[in-house]
Amino acid sequence: MSGEIGVYRTDHGSRGDGKDHVGEFWMGVVSSVAASGLLVGFGWITSSNMRRRVRRALLQVTGAGVLETFKSQREAAPAVAAALAEARSVRVFAGRGNELTRDTFHSLWETGARKKSEVKVLLPDPDETGPGSWIDDHEQEAVKYDGGQAGGLIVHQIRVNVAYIENVAKNLDHVELALYDYPSIGRLVITEKVAFLTAYSDIRHGADSPCVMLSAGHPLYDFAARLFDKVWQTSRRP
Question: Are strands 89-93 and 118-124 parallel, antiparallel or unpaired?
């Protein structure tokens, strides 16, 4: 008899597990719908900073991986600065690097700031220029939407930014610079927690291009990190 009771309890437990799985599934659906509803409902919050925090929290709950989208790289600057200030490891792939000298990246160059384990910066190689080069290709696109970009201005700006990072690296031994020969089709700012991906177009300045903030583990985060590492391997040190 004890054996029969044992069989009965085993069967009953199996049915219960099946119900539990169904319950968990519907609970997940309800949670996702509820989170989406909250995301819409919080639109009445007047503080843009609060809206951004709520949006990120809800996206993290639903496992979306895209923490924030910005209308432009310029609009993303405060979020980039905040992420860099608390980061331990930073990798930057820039099209020419003008913003590296501004407040957004200031925390990386402060000698008294939080210690970084590494800061790697990739900039275009200013010696790889002339007809047929990627820098020339960048200039040909840029002059279509901004005539002031002609006449070697881009390569001049790159040289200035290279000199800036070289000067910084003299005082901070965790800062490394490498120069790449690769298309200037976007900007990557990668920390151990998040990545900011800006895809450049041929119709507007990079600062006016949309930017996406991704959490570590998202496929595009992994792609950005892998792309950076591959370009770093083939780049030269000044």
Answer: parallel
Helices (H), 87-183: 106-109, 134-145, 153-171
Comparing C-alpha atoms, which of 78, 117, 126 is closest to residue 99? Answer: 78
Q: What's the predicted TM-score (pTM) here?
A: 0.74
At which residue do the structure tokens 């923490």 appear? 67
In single-letter form, the type of residue at position 74 comes to R
Average pLDDT over residues 50-79: 73
Over residues 199-208, the mean pLDDT reads 86
CB 144: neighbour CB atoms within 10 A? 10
Give the C-alpha separation, 171 to 168, whole Å.
6
Residue 151 phi, psi dihedral angles, 5° rounding: 75, 25
Rounded distance between C-alpha atoms, residue 192 and residue 74, angstroms:
22
E strand intervals along 182-229: 186-191, 194-199, 211-215
CB distance 84 to 175 below 8 Å: no
How much is the pLDDT for 3? 46
